[in-house]
Design brief:
Elements (H helix, E strand, L loop, with lengths): L15 E5 L32 H13 L4 E5 L9 H9 L6 E6 L4 H11 L3 E5 L5 H7 L6 H14 L2 E8 L8 H11 L2 E6 L17 H9 L4 E4 L9 E5 L5 E5 L12 E4 L4 E3 L8 E2 L1 H5 L4 H13 L5 H4 L2 H6 L5 H4 L2
Parallel strand pairs: 1-2, 1-10, 2-3, 3-4, 4-5, 5-6, 6-9
Antiparallel strand pairs: 7-8, 8-9, 10-11, 11-12
Helix pairs in contact: 1-2, 1-9, 2-3, 3-5
The structure holds S-adenosylmethionine and iron/sulfur cluster (2 copies).
The site of one iron/sulfur cluster has 11 residues, from helix 10.
Length: about 350
């Protein structure tokens, strides 16, 4: 099949794809899957509802033919999905796909990093919201200490994977950790991304007041470091990046709330249960799994994806208000993967 460029109603091409491979997680982060809402009785998806690796591979090939250059695997916790390196291997054989990344909480990396790298994974984004084990244990809801994640980061580096750290910042929760995390990452030469707390799903009790904006974090960092702005590497790069003066180490921001970037959003999402979402905040997914399981041809699937993308008008973050955050139907982060 020939590679196409398809554009949505706001002229945005389809360039990247996030695939959530599982909705389960070994953490219960307060801002994502709060333990009181995702308790022992929570009904996660049965295996039959998850896309198989063969189905993901088939869809990924079709997406790549439609212009996708980058794929990121996520979850839930993607490393809980059995034999993930097998999927990575399948994806890394797709002609025209330029980049495969993984977003993970990191604790299973010591077990899988080497295999993932050998299978063709290029980079991992590891989520770490505090360097204080007591606080981190509270945030992740499972009392997991910081060392487990640091071991994961080390394993990824030793395996030769690119590593970035993602830190979600929520007011009153971990703002005290901004400077220590920046210090740590600068010292270790690891790229850090500060992520504004977002109103994903409907369980995390989001309020605008809880958001620490990029500007606030930046002002704080400027008291400690000299920072030079870095030009974006490509159209649609989400992180606003800066470089510590005199180094080649970046620190970035994902200012989804305070400086939305919908006009350059080129991302489609495939949820763990096989639905396509055209926006992190658009609760109306488009089924592709059942459609596929009816014996549909690649051409029919491709046309369906093309139609979904061509019809896309989402610009939720540009339009966000307290009201939309509260009342809009949204998909949970664990289904769609950030
Ligand atoms: N379990 C993996 C992890 O934590 O990296 C992958 C899935 S997680 C849903 C993907 C990313 O979404 C993580 O970087 C996480 O910090 C971020 N995230 C989750 N809930 C968020 C929220 N309410 N606001 C901003 N980022 C959030
Ligand atoms: Fe799990 Fe990641 Fe959500 Fe934390 S952010 S609960 S690790 S899916
Ligand atoms: Fe993309 Fe939706 Fe986020 Fe805007 S709100 S950047 S359209 S995912």
């Amino acid at each position: 099949m020939k590679k196409l460029i398809i554009k949505d109603k706001l002229n945005r091409p389809l360039r990247d794809l996030r695939i959530s491979v599982i909705d389960r997680c070994n953490f219960r982060c307060t801002y994502c899957m709060p333990a009181d809402k995702f308790g022992p009785d929570f009904a996660f998806l049965p295996k039959s509802e998850l896309l198989t690796y063969e189905e993901i591979e088939r869809l990924a090939k079709i997406f790549v033919d439609l212009g996708v250059e980058k794929i990121r695997l996520t979850g839930g916790e993607p490393l809980l999905r059995k034999d993930l390196p097998i999927l990575v291997k399948k994806l890394s054989n797709i002609q025209g796909l330029q980049d495969i990344g993984l977003t993970t909480n990191g604790v299973l990396l010591p077990r899988y990093a080497k295999e993932l790298k050998e299978a063709g994974l290029l980079r991992v984004n590891v989520s770490l919201d505090s360097l204080n084990s007591e606080l981190f244990g509270k945030i992740n809801g499972r009392n997991v200490g910081v060392q487990a994640v640091l071991d994961g980061i080390q394993a990824a580096q030793e395996a030769g994977l690119g590593v970035k750290i993602n830190m979600v910042v929520k007011k009153g929760l971990n703002d005290s950790e901004i400077v220590p995390m920046a210090n740590f990452c600068k010292e270790k030469g690891i790229q850090l991304r500060f992520i504004e707390f977002m109103d994903v799903g409907s369980t995390n009790g989001w309020k605008m007041d809880d958001v620490i904006t990029k500007k606030e974090i930046f002002e704080l960092l400027k008291k400690h470091y000299l920072l030079d702005p870095v030009e974006p590497d490509y159209f649609g790069e989400v992180a606003k990046r800066y470089r510590y003066e005199g180094t080649n180490i970046d620190v970035g921001f994902i200012p989804s709330v305070s400086e939305s970037f919908c006009s350059s959003c080129t991302r489609s999402r495939l949820s763990a249960n096989g639905q396509i979402f055209t926006c992190l905040f658009n609760g109306d997914g488009h089924d592709i799994k059942e459609f596929m399981r009816q014996g549909t041809t690649d051409e029919e699937i491709s046309k369906r994806i093309k139609d979904i993308w061509s019809d896309r008008k989402d610009r939720y973050s540009d339009e966000r208000t307290e009201e939309t955050a509260r009342n809009r139907k949204k998909i949970e982060m664990s289904y769609i993967g950030g």
